[in-house]
Amino acid sequence: MYLGLDLGTSGLRAILTDGAGNVLAASDQSYPVSHPHSGWSEQDPADWVAAAERALEAIKASRPKELAALRAIGLSGQMHGATLLDAGDEVLRPAILWNDTRASVEAAAMDGDPAFRAISGNIVFPGFTAPKLAWVKAHEPELFAKVAMVLLPKDYLRFWLTGDHASDMSDSAGTSWMDVGKRAWSPALLDKAGMRLDQMPRLVEGSDVSGTLRKEVADRWGLSDSVKVVGGGGDNSASACGVGCFDEGDGFVSLGTSGVLLAAKAGFAPSPETAVHTFCHSVPDTWYQMGVILSATDSLNWLAKQTGSKPAELSALLGDRIDGPGSIRFLPYLSGERTPHNDAAIRGAFVGLGIGDGHKALTQAVMEGVAFALRDNHEALKATGTTLTRVLGIGGGSKSDYWVELIATLLGVPIDLPEQGEFGAALGAARLAIVGDTGAAPAEVMTRPAVARTIEPRADLAHAYDDAYAQYRALYPALKEIL
């Protein structure tokens, strides 16, 4: 039996699978996000551990015999977060999350040094880990002096499970401290960032064993203390493992809290000037590129909160088929934006509101704005030489046929929707555990899901949406001038 733990932004998902990857049990546990100041986003690492304990308790209650036969655990999680430990492995402050933008000044200073792009292969985004530590050094110097270890969120769970300080290549690639091409920490970047190699966890590949379960944890859940814990991956890399996305040209579009357009790459071919991320894959000797928007379903969730509605109620107003763009433009920069703008300060806007516009028109504008932003990502990926002929649609937003058809039309590629079932980051983590325990080839374990149906682009409406996208593209520089 194998366990996959996915530490998300709003909650943890745990799944128990057999050796073939069939899901036998699952548990979802939520925890809060704190926003003490504008642009700040923090969590208490103790909440992650408590969620994992609740999830294991639930799985043990439903599948005690199967859980007792557990052989390995895989981890996935939200990327870029900074969890700071002192010399006694005590947490020094709340973890600073991926969508926290307080370190924009520090990120710009680092990005101004050509070495960061040259070695890491990426722009230094404010949400990355390195500028967060620079912010702590500047604003919390006494605390910074106590930092003995920096762990990414899922790697704090690993520490709780194993007592080891370790991380995987894919998650660590998003810190701005790593030589992503060499798949190793960069002494030069660490030095430039005022950090030391001994403050970094040991690196392993996603399918390599990073440690074994601590006896205290094993005894609590009736497990063997020989249970392996593998490297795992950042959430998008693990999701790629969950949907079998490894080969050049394989890709997916994810409509979750954030929006992602990801393409697997056979080699390391960074293009930081496009604001596309180039990271190590969880699978050895493989990389991936992706464009990221910070507010995808979060934009619809925000509108639902403002209107006193549920997101599903708003999307239902539009039906299942697109029929041309609306007259309102929405820029989904509620938390700033990554690809292609790398702009932590920009904020969202509605343009073209009329007195007769109601919930339906606003919903259409929001969904179109997110789709236009994903088109921005596609254009950035194409600028790197990446070609996608079709993509898999995943994430909660992919339940809306309207949204998926809209995105397919704007990207100009068919979107395959998988059959119902588990195929996300938690499954990817469990699959990495299977590979780490059995030594099986990743391609044998991490197969693509069966496709339930394909939503094709609407050629009859492509020109109209291209025109609307051109209007959308013109709004960012105009908005930037006044903010």
CATH topology of the largest domain: Nucleotidyltransferase, domain 5
Summing up helix and strand content along with how strands pair, one would put the structural category as: alpha/beta
Mean pLDDT: 95
Work out the number of β strands: 24
Radius of gyration: 22 Å
Question: What is the top-level CATH class of the largest domain?
Answer: Alpha Beta
> How much of the sequence is in beta strands?
15-25%
Question: What sort of overall outline do the alpha carbons produce when their principal axes are compared?
Answer: globular
Distance between the termini: 53 Å
Give me the CATH architecture of the largest domain, please. 2-Layer Sandwich
What are the main properties of this structure?
483 residues, alpha/beta, Nucleotidyltransferase, domain 5, 2 domains, 7-stranded mixed beta sheet, 18 helices, globular, ATP-binding
Can you walk through the features of this model?
The protein is an alpha/beta fold. It has 2 domains: 2-237, Nucleotidyltransferase, domain 5 (2-Layer Sandwich); 244-422 and 450-483, 2-Layer Sandwich (Nucleotidyltransferase, domain 5). It contains 18 helices and 24 strands. Strands 1, 2, 3, 5, 13, 14 and 15 form a 7-stranded mixed beta sheet that branches. The longest helix is centred in the last third of the chain and has 25 residues, at 359-383. The model has no long low-confidence stretch (mean pLDDT 95).
